[in-house]
Each structure stands twice: as C-alpha cells, then as structure tokens.
C-alpha cells in the first residue's frame, strides 16, 4: 500500500521530482506558504485530509504526470476542487499530493450551441456566468463556490433539475485520468459511464467535461422569503405536503431552521423560501397557504437566474463560501414528503441543543425540495445515482468551532439523533444518504443504493479500474481500501 509522506522535507523531495515532469506553467506549493495554506483550506475542518504538497496542473497532461508519479512513488493523491467536500472518509488521507484543479477552468460552447466543454476544476459561478453571456444555461449546483464536477460526480442537485435532471444527467462525455495513469475519454460507450454519474469520485480525475446546455427560456425569477417562529412547524410542513408535494417544475422550496436572534431571540426560526421561474412575483397559489399561517416576516424580490445564489445565501460572498476553520458535518436523509410529527420532534431537539449558548448555535437544519420531474424522467437504473424517487433532501448541518474529540462526538451524536428521527419518520427501511452531503459513517449501500446489483456493479468496476484503491477517500465503494 501507499507510503505516506510524513514530513515537509519529504514533500519537497517529491515536489522536486514532479517539477521535472510537469509543464512549465504548473505550480507546486509547500506547506506553510501562503499559497499552500490557501489552496489546501477546506470548508469543513472535521476529519479533513492532510497533504504535504499542493500541485497545480494547467493541462490534462500535467494531471496524467502527477497521477503516474504518485502511482510509481506509492503516494496518495486527492483532487481538490471547491474543497467543500466534507465527508469524514476524506480524513483517511494522512499525507500525500493535493491536485488542485482550479486552473482547469475553461468554457467552450460548441458551434451547434447544444453542448459546452468545461474544465474539470471550474466553479458553478464561472459556468453560469460564461453560459449566460451566450444566452445559455445548464444544471449546476446552486452554490457559487462549489465546483461543477464535485456535485456532478455524486449526482448534483440544482435549480434547473426540474427541467433537465441532475448535473450528472447533463454529462455527454468526459476526459478522465484513471488510476493506471492513462487519460481516457469516457462516454456512453464505456462501462465506466454509468458509475461516473453518481459514484464518479471513486474512479479518476475528470480534467474536462462536455455537458448538455440549453437556451435560456425564462429570464425572470422571483422569490418570497418567509420567516416563521418554531411554533408553526406543524402548520408549515403540513402546508408544504398539501400544496408543494411534489414541487411544481418551475418552483423550488427550501427551508432552513436556524437562529436569527432579531426574529426570535430564544429559538430557531423557519426560514422558508419559495422561488419561482418565469415570473416577477411568486404566484399567490403557492404563497397564500403560507401567508395564512402567519409568518413573522415576508420579503419578496425579483431578478434573474444569477440572483438565486445571493437570495438563498450561497453566493461567493455568503457565509457558506468562506473557509473559516469551522467544523461542518452534515447528516443527510432523502425523504418523499414531510412527516409532520417527526418535524416537531426534530425541531424541539434542534432548538434545545443548538440555541442560546450551545457550541452548535450556528447550525442549520436544511430541507431542500427541488422539483424532481427532470430527475425522475431519467431511468433509475441508468446511473449510479440511486435515489431518483425521493423528493426532498434533508440534513442537519452541525456547525461549530472545533475544540477536540469530545465536541466532535457531541456534534455527531446530535446530527445522528436528528437524522434518525427523519429516517424513522420517512418509513423507508434503508437510509438514503446523498453522498455529497454524507457525514462519513454511512455504508456504501446508504450512498449508492441498497440494491445488490448496484453494489455488485460498482465493486466490479472498482476492481477493474482502480484495484489499488487510488481514488478511495471520498465515499469509498470498497470500505477499508
Ligand atoms: C455551501 C454548500 C452548497 C452546496 N450546494 C450544493 C448544491 O446546490 N447541489 C449539490 O448537489 N451539492 C451541493 N453541495 C454539496 C457538494 O456537492 C459537495 O460538498 C461536493 O463534494 C463539493 O464539491 P467541491 O468541488 O466543492 O469539493 P471538493 O472537496 O474539492 O471535491 C469533492 C470530492 O470530489 C472530488 N472531485 C472534485 N472534482 C473532481 C474532478 N474534476 N474529478 C474527480 N474528482 C473530483 C474530490 O477529490 C473530492 O473527493 C453544497 C455544499 C456546500 C458546502
């Protein structure tokens, strides 16, 4: 197995050897430099990977050379993109080479306007802006600082999924550096294609992707942001079941439970977003049932697609895009609809354990109801993403300033307790845990689907394409590799 680099000096030795094989523009940064610290900082510091050198490729061939070198030298490697991956299995990397993909960030729209080829390290924001300027758009993650491939390789939820499906459903072909150090074009003709759409982090490094793109159909978007006090939990989620289940194709409904002292000084509030496409004001058919419940406040805005991230606090300058040394474990569970009494139980525990002076008072309980029509139009068995029949992505995000093992344990216990109630209330036997939000203690069945054929297919592909487990830090298909 891999020999870990365990000192800066050894890191330097390997960096020198790499320098000789990389292109002149490629960069190598050593620990304790400003660049290294910046390129290796992560959104969540819990169980984060440790690297001894950060290498910045500028071409596919640079990535090939790094993977080949690491294989020969038996060094662990990990692609860093938006560095918002927070699954604790990443912490199994305890030394090795970071491959920072941020310079692979081109966008080229094909002459026929039906696809675009984008760099493997591009952010959602860069793709959204580049396509918008040509009258096009595609499905990306919602958060501006998250990459396209990070979400996409695990499925990828986005604003436009009601029309077009998941981020992964847009894939047309990709260039991938595989574990054997070869660069391959993977598309529908490859047996690996199925796996790249849901479990792709396990199989290689995508240096570029050709994605479907679409003409912008609707320039107008509108949002209503409502804030409810916690005593309205039953009314709000019953109304969500009654009026928004499933969410119409042109609507998105997210809600967050969080502490906003100006709205309620003692307990978390329900921040409730109704977002509608193709209009300058959210239709009263959707808003009235919620107005009738009696929110603390209602705020309406309108703009275009590019405003959505700012409205929902996932823009480049929003808090979730900053890397400030916080631990940010999430505990996801997909559900089909809200179990209102379970919501009450979760709220009461969340309010008791994540308010006031609690170290977890910056936590957020997330409920993301995206439209699913485009997702469910794709055959369930056609991709490794396994949870197309679910409607709502839920996850407590337990945010805290890390102080050591004891607090980590408390955070995990709280997150698991809350998720346990959601899962039990869902009536689903198996926990469906979105791998991109996963905590890390779930099993491959929870991440990639409990059907035996899914597990067998993934394992067989892993044995074929990555028998040494070079790409096994993020949600590993084979545990213990
Ligand atoms: C604030 C916030 C908002 C989010 N919003 C959404 C959302 O709207 N929709 C959604 O589906 N998810 C969302 N997520 C979850 C997101 O999908 C995951 O956190 C994802 O892992 C982040 O990707 P990244 O590139 O930022 O992180 P990274 O940690 O850099 O990458 C995550 C994993 O993917 C691998 N990887 C990244 N790029 C490549 C590549 N080119 N080739 C091979 N492997 C690669 C990395 O090695 C790593 O193992 C969000 C997360 C956060 C924190």
UniProtKB/TrEMBL annotation:
Q: Organism's domain of life? A: Eukaryota
Q: What is the official name of this protein in its record?
A: FAD-dependent oxygenase
């Amino acid at each position: 197995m891999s020999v870990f680099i365990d000192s800066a000096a050894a890191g330097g030795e390997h960096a020198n050897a790499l320098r000789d094989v990389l292109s002149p523009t490629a960069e190598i940064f050593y620990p304790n430099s400003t660049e290294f610290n910046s390129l290796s900082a992560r959104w969540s510091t819990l169980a984060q990977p440790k690297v001894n050198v950060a290498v910045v490729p500028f071409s596919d061939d640079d990535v090939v050379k790094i993977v080949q070198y690491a294989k020969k030298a038996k060094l662990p490697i990990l692609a860093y993109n938006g560095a918002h991956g927070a699954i604790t299995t990443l912490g199994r990397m305890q030394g090795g080479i970071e491959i920072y993909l941020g310079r692979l960030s081109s966008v080229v729209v094909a002459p026929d306007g039906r696809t675009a080829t984008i760099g493997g390290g591009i952010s959602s924001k860069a793709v959204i802006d580049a396509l918008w300027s040509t009258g096009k758009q595609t499905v990306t993650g919602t958060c501006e600082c998250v990459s396209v491939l990070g979400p996409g390789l695990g499925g990828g939820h986005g604003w436009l999924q009601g029309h077009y499906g998941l981020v992964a459903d847009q894939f047309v072909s990709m260039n991938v550096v595989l574990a054997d150090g070869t660069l391959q074009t993977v598309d529908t003709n490859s047996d690996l294609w199925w796996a790249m759409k849901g479990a792709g982090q396990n199989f290689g490094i995508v240096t570029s992707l050709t994605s479907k793109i679409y003409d912008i159909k609707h320039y107008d978007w509108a949002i209503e942001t409502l804030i409810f006090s916690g005593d309205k939990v039953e009314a709000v989620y019953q109304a969500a079941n009654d009026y928004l289940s499933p969410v119409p194709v042109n609507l998105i409904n997210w809600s967050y439970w969080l502490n906003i002292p100006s709205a309620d000084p003692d307990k978390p509030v329900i921040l409730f977003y109704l977002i509608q496409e193709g209009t300058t004001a959210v239709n009263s058919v959707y808003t009235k049932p919620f107005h009738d419940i009696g929110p603390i406040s209602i705020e309406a805005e309108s703009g275009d697609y590019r405003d959505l991230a700012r409205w929902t606090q996932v823009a480049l300058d929003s808090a979730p895009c900053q890397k400030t040394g916080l631990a940010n474990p999430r505990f996801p569970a997909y559900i089909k609809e809200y179990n209102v009494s379970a919501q009450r139980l979760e709220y009461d525990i969340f309010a008791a354990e994540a308010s006031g002076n609690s170290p977890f008072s910056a936590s957020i309980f997330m409920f993301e109801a995206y439209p699913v029509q485009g997702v469910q139009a794709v055959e369930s068995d056609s991709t490794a993403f396994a949870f197309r029949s679910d409607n709502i992505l839920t996850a407590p995000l337990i945010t805290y300033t890390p102080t050591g093992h004891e607090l980590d344990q408390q955070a995990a216990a709280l997150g698991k307790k809350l998720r346990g109630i959601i899962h039990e209330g869902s009536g689903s036997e198996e926990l469906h845990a979105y791998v991109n939000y996963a905590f890390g203690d779930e099993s491959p069945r929870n991440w990639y689907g409990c059907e035996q054929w899914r597990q067998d297919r993934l394992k067989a592909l892993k044995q074929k394409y990555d028998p040494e487990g070079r790409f096994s830090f993020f949600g590993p298909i084979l545990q213990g590799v």
